[in-house]
Structure formats: structure tokens, C-alpha cells
Write a structure and sequence with these properties.
Double Stranded RNA Binding Domain, 3 helices, alpha+beta, 119 residues
């Protein structure tokens, strides 16, 4: 069986009219979604939902899709930023009590949810 961490996911902030928080989905599993009040909670709930879906497929004798079987991006990239931005992000993450990765993911999800366009 594949590791849960190998599966890419998509996350977006939920509008207040949708209940707020964050929604996580897994492109390799069309019906596997979860949500949470915070990015960390959505990630945890998503992992639990993914584990349940994979277990149900196995119980029914159905194949479990391989990670990235839908030809989607890996979900991993490296970005070089100026030292001043890195310092600001790290300070904000410490202030919020989260990891730098969680802070960047939150800011990216918020930006994408607002329909921010790069011109």
C-alpha cells in the first residue's frame, strides 16, 4: 500500500458562507474531501479521510490508485525569496505558533481563494 504522505492534495479557504476554515481534497480520489478550522486541522482530517477511503477500497477488493495517477503536480516546489521576506515569514510563523511551511501554505491558500491574479 502507498504512504498517505505520497498523495498530492489541494487546499483552499472556505468562504464564511461555506462555514469558514479550509477544505482539502485529493485529486487521486474524486470523493475524498475533508475540512478543518485551521490548515493543520484540515491536513489531519484529510489524512484520516484518505486512510478511510483507502481502507474501504481494499475491503471491497478494489484497487487503490497510485499517487499522482491523475497526472497532477507533486505538491512540492522550492522557491527562493529575498532574505527580508524569509525573515518576515519566519517571524510571522513563530508569532502564530506554526511551522514556516504551514504559514506559507496558509498564505498561498488565502491568496488563491481570493482569486489573486499574476499579471
Amino acid at each position: 500500500m502507498y504512504a498517505l504522505e505520497d498523495y498530492p492534495f489541494e487546499m483552499r479557504p472556505l468562504k464564511p458562507s461555506e462555514g469558514g476554515g479550509y477544505l482539502i481534497s485529493y485529486p487521486d480520489f474524486t470523493e475524498c474531501i475533508a475540512d478543518g478550522e485551521t490548515v493543520e486541522e484540515a491536513l489531519q482530517n484529510g489524512r484520516e479521510a484518505l486512510q478511510a477511503v483507502m481502507g474501504a477500497l481494499q475491503e471491497q477488493g478494489m484497487p487503490v490508485p497510485a499517487p499522482n495517477s491523475g497526472g497532477v503536480a507533486s505538491g512540492k516546489f522550492i522557491a527562493r525569496v529575498p532574505k527580508s521576506i524569509h525573515a518576515q515569514l519566519a517571524a510571522r510563523a513563530r508569532m502564530e505558533g506554526v511551522s514556516l511551511n504551514a504559514m506559507v501554505l496558509t498564505l498561498l491558500a488565502k491568496g488563491l481563494g481570493q482569486g489573486t491574479r499574476v499579471e
